[in-house]
Design brief:
2 helices; Nucleic acid-binding protein; DUF2082_NA-bd_Znr; 3-stranded antiparallel beta sheet; 72 residues
Amino acid sequence: MDPDTRDTSGCPKCGHTEVTTDSISTTGGGLSKMFDIQTKSFTVVSCSNCGYSELYKDVRNRGSDIVDVFLG
């Protein structure tokens, strides 16, 4: 498929347009890792069809913007 003519909306892997969102927290490095303190938050956007997922740093009040980035 010619990259100039393909549809860029939907899942980057399968083109499906339904997603689920969730959030995860992870430890950073150094002392937070040693004491298992979860200092990093991410929003996970996953395709409902194939499961392809992308992580985005959690920035408050940007939930719908992240889904728009995932879907193109």
